[in-house]
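Obj: model holo form, ligand = 3'-deoxy-guanosine-5'-triphosphate.
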Amino acid sequence: MAIGGEHHQANGWAKQALEHLARDGLPPLPENYAVYFYYYAGTNPNLKMSMDLLFQQNGSLTQDQCKDLYVTHLGLETERKVLKEANAAMEAEVSKVMSVIDTATSGTQQFGKTLDNFSGKLSTSNSLEQIRETVTKVASETRVIAKQNDRLQTQLAQTNEQLSEMRFNLDAVHRESQIDPLTEVGNRKFFGVELARAMGEATDSGAPLTLLVIDIDHFKKFNDSHGHIIGDQVLRLVARTLVENLKGRDVIARYGGEEFVILLPQTKVVDAEKVANQLRSNLGTKQIRRRSTNETLGVVTISIGATEYCPEEDAESFIARADHALYQAKQTGRNKVVSELVSPEQAAEIKLRNTPT
Ligand code: GH3
Ligand code: MG
Ligand code: MG
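Output (holo structure tokens):
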């Protein structure tokens, strides 16, 4: 749905934003579009007020001002929504203009050709000299119009190019918003999306799906003894180790501070236990070193809770069961894998809850 309701209205704002952006000489970054788009949409009174003030003072915005406005008024949270809608409206506007110009150009070219032809025929006739002159003039004027249209079309093609660049930037923003910058695996948001997809697939196909919840053992102590910088290095090492030992369709994410989650589609919990133990023993072979001094700091261990998805259960209870298994692993000595199966009572309850009445 377009912001503020009707689509053609959003397209109007997009057009105005596009023109104004060009007038102010700003590059077609998604953020810039969003700021101008919302200025015309008027849905953000504070943004509009700030911009009006700047326009009054300087006539236009600088890139820095535009960026500041974006951060202050449109911010991270609304980022994706804002950019997507601004982009869609902008694209619709441009393709509309493109098609109008297309029609106009081919129409004008055709017109020019017809007139050329006409004047060629007429030139043989002296008595029609005046008419011939008029027609020649019209034909040359038509060519001027066609040239102008050509220019317009080139401009629009450029705009189109800028838009695809913008779409690329938009995709990058989207991707970045789902990646944990420290470990470069997916973040919790990414996991949410993947979990929903995997649960749907498992429910539809009846194939097993196992979730592993992984937590570093005594990590607080490690941080306290060696410092956060080394702690961060360990987080990256753990993430890398997990990634190295997974297959293509498996999903990994950093769920929180020192906790990772892994989804293993088409994998039963007994097989997932083997994978989990492999991850654990693989990590156990990696010595942690302080890079500056090459001092050996030992190894870190992880505890893992595993559970299999019960078709049609919700994400909350699926994760809670894996968490509970992890808790058992911690309680019974750490550096181990504990799996928990859905109890028959739980399974019956889930089934009952999802049976249409
Ligand atoms: P347990 O074996 O029971 O899991 O003990 P623990 O010390 O690992 O668990 P606890 O929850 O008590 O502490 C987690 C610690 O993880 C707290 C904090 O020092 C560390 N931690 C969380 N996020 C980060 C991070 O991004 N970087 C670093 N360096 N440390 C982190
Ligand atoms: Mg923890
Ligand atoms: Mg821990």
